[in-house]
Amino acid sequence: MPNLTLRCYKSLPRYSSTSVLHGGPRPDGCTLIPWKAGRCLAWDVTVPGTLAERYLNLTSKECGLAAARAADEKIKKYGNALPSMEFLPICIEVLGAMDPNTLKFFKAIYKMISVRSGDSRELFFATNHISYLLQRFLRVCVLENIQLNADMCN
Q: How many CB atoms lie within 10 A of CB 39?
């Protein structure tokens, strides 16, 4: 998932997040060019398991609550650690639901890309690609779980 986010910023210079925070928590990436109000953007990607026991009490009630909880946890983790940057947790559940701020961010990015490319379907293509990546990720998780269970039975 971090690579998809980086593709959004393909033309922007990027630097290692290790230079942002020395010895503290490090987000997945940062931009050198200001994003909002003169502040650069830092992001951290999380893909919570929609059906994980930890989130099941939330996701059984409403779609997207695992992503929202993961976003809240990331904000607590990085909120005070990045005072000079705009921090964005990018949270997409394994089954596809997104945190509202993540969806808003993707819409803003792909609107800019659409204006530049002249193709209004950029968001559609991106969501299809995200769906494909999530399916591959879920496949790996399922296969590893099957192997783990087989090892435990033997």
A: 15
